[in-house]
Amino acid sequence: MKKRGFSKRVLTALFALLISSGMILSSCGKSDDASETSKGKKSKKTETAEVIVDETESASELSSDTTEPTTTETTEPTETSDPGRLQLAGTYEGYAKQTKAEFYPEKGTVNDYPILQNDGSFRLVLNADGTGSWEDAQTGSYDIVEWTADGETVSVTLPDRTIPGTVRNGLVCMNDADMFWFYAQDGADPSLFGAITPDEATVVTGIDYYFGIGPEGYDVDKAVSCFQSAAAAGVPDAYYWLGRYYRNSTLCIDHYTTAMEYFEKAIELGSAYGLIGKGTMYVAGQTVNKDTAAAYELYKQAADAGCLMGFAYMGDIIRTGKAPGQSGTEGSRAIELCEKALSSKHWIDRAYATFEIGCVYEYGAGDISKDATNAIEWYKKAYEMGYGEAAENIARMYDEGRGVSVDHGTANYWYEIAVAQGNISAAVGLGYNYYHGIGTSLNYEEAFRLYLFAAENGSKVGAYDVGILYKDGNGTPQNYAEAFRWFEAAARDEYALAYTFLGDMYKDGLGVTKNEAMALDRYIEGALHGSAWSASRVGDSYLYGECTSVDYYKALDFYALGMKNADLDDENGKKAYDYCQARIAEMVNKGYIRQDQANAAVS
Length: 603
Known about the structure:
By secondary structure, the chain is α+β, with helices and mostly antiparallel strands. It is 56% helix and 10% strand.
């Protein structure tokens, strides 16, 4: 390609200018070495001004050194008057490419990160005269016919196409037919633009599968495979996601212990997300004593370490009034913390913070009153970002009339959306409505499908419901062995109602060898875990001599416990309460116990 000629003096001045401009642009790179020259952040306006100053100084110095008479200075046009070109002229290495589009419109935001490609095979050379070269090891090298720059936009014309791009913080990003090429000033630190390695990108892909926001939708098995692969390669955040998976996995034995081990490993390797995971264990009292203050401190440590999700989790504790030294709930302060997380470059941080702001408006806190309209608006934003739990919350608001009129049809619509993104709690809610014909026709088969989906993806409630349908033969052929297996899975995660049916199956020998001693043990476990019906079964055992010898006083104690365990806001809970109360009255009428003993037991 033919280049225009320049006088020796102009070329010398241009060379000095490009060196100066390159030094200024490269100052956008980050450095962890305190001994390096300070690279302070500058606005585009300031940087442009510095280029002009450097140009003037260079020209002045050359003028004082030259022996040429000023009357012989060339008048040949140089095409270097474009400040955008002066600002950007130089050599850029293609440190990274983004292998996914930034958005899947039908799924939401998926990948904020370019993947590191620091192999020297991608280079962009921009000359101040508007020429240059595009060196691409994959598709070939080209002379640039022309390139222009205007503010934060740049356009490069090759012989066969024109490629648009953007310029931010010293980084050039070219969009070549939805393939994003990231270029930084030659020698700049790639952390300038937050590039990630292919192993780190595996975590991002796993998150896509985990939340159902990638092109292939929800697939927890593929998500876990990605997390395991990245963990084996030593990626710290991968351990956080494995811990998060196991924390929610009912079917895995000792899953809380496994989750905590992964969170601790993430922390050990330097992942601030590990602190978030460990904090959630303290909030729920899983493998550790429940300690909200300890959780708050862990969230704060995460936020201080740069994990902005920590602010949103702190906001959750502030919202519920459980932060250290807090005297009551505080809505505005919770929102203020969540808004800090909204500025994160990480998708999950922004999505969770958006969801949490919705919670502030749904439930109200301190100076923020309940506002269903605002809550749904924020939940919709979170759902559009790919956070399925937000869609589930909208569904429950309509299903239960929480700040809105009850509308089961709308609730089922939002349940469906949440299920498509892998939300197992929504699957249980929608399955319940199909099982009872609420907002839709009664459909046991669809209820079974939804309950099974929830159970196989870690829901203890779903596991219990699958057990019920197998036991009764609704939506699936009756199978006592399968019912027993799913009740056991739910009981492993201490779902109280599951113990009742495990006891029944041991007592009657359904799906398992008959064993009355084991039946009584399961009933007692269920009672101690809060099941009113399990407590009533223990009471029956001692009252009628089933599975054990008669003991009226132990019967009284467990019937009284059943009344205390019963949830009177729930129809089934009220039935359990009435049953236990009737048995106590029966024992008084028959003279097995005195009325004062009964009164003392239930007081």
